[in-house]
Amino acid sequence: xxxxxxxxxxxxxxxxxxxPLNWRMPSIMIDTFKKCLNLKNRTGIETKxxxxxxxRVQFSNVQFYDWLMRIGLFPAKSYxxxxxxxxxxxxxxxxxxxxxxxxxxxxxxxxxxxxxNRRYTTQRLFIRLVSASRVHMEWAQNKIxxxxxxxxxxxxxxxxxxxxxxxxxLKFAKxxxxxxxxxxxxxxxxxxxxxxxxIARTAIELINKQKRREYTKIVNPx
Length: 222
Description:
The model is unreliable at 5-12 (pLDDT under 50). 33% of the residues lie in helices and 23% in strands. It has one domain (2-209): Roll (Endonuclease I-creI). The protein is an alpha+beta fold.
């Protein structure tokens, strides 16, 4: 299930008539994609008009393509994608693929109170998922709530100009992010974007080492 969302929103699934399937994605994801499907096909390289390079793998599998259509994944899906028919036991893998493709894991050290001569900082952690489809994001939020009893915040990001559509961001703060990380990275040998898993592991290590805040005990006067 990771492979069906292991590609970012700019990626391209294409089937021309009865011809082959085309998948485009960054180079850091192409090897994982081919390994998941046991593909030995050659990786192609394409240069866009703006100079960006994309990597493409082409293969023929009508049954696989028809299966993608049945579960709700289709070409040019960014604006119209809705719920995906993912079995519950595979949803952590699907969500991990979403984060690898259309999301991010971010962490930073918050030193907001340093100027007050406090002796601690707070390690922040966020997980974000972004899509142009509100229906898909509401479905993802409801599924996460069903499995983990957390909701996060669904935020509308207005377009930069009238020719664009709003973007929807599903955002989880530190406590919920820690639960998500443990849930979707449940073993060491799962297919994933290693760069993002490394960020998650680093954040957990920093949070675990974080010094506990020192509170002053207030004694009520008699």
